[in-house]
Amino acid sequence: MSNERIIRLLISKSNAYKDGYARALAKGDTYAAKKWKEGYQLIKERIYDLKQE
């Protein structure tokens, strides 16, 4: 799979993580919100790395 296709999939996944983070915050679940945020940041880092290749 080309980097461009992987990046598009990761962007879609990052949107899901952002939504999960927002839902966790709305429920007041700080532990889950932290996990969603960490996952989102890892995806953004991977996207950045793929763009650099």
Broad structural category? mainly alpha
Radius of gyration, taken over Cα atoms and rounded to an integer in Å: 12 Å
Distance between the termini: 14 Å
Described by the principal axes of the CA atoms, the overall outline is elongated
Structure, briefly:
With 53 residues, the chain is mostly helical. The protein has two helices and no strands.
Structure write-up:
The protein has one domain (3-52). The two termini are 14 Å apart. It has helices at 3-27, 30-52. α1 packs antiparallel against α2 (30-52). By secondary structure, it is mostly helical.
List the helices and strands and how they pair.
Layout: H1 3-27, H2 30-52
Helix pairs in contact: 1-2
Provide tags for this entry:
single chain; 53 residues; mainly alpha
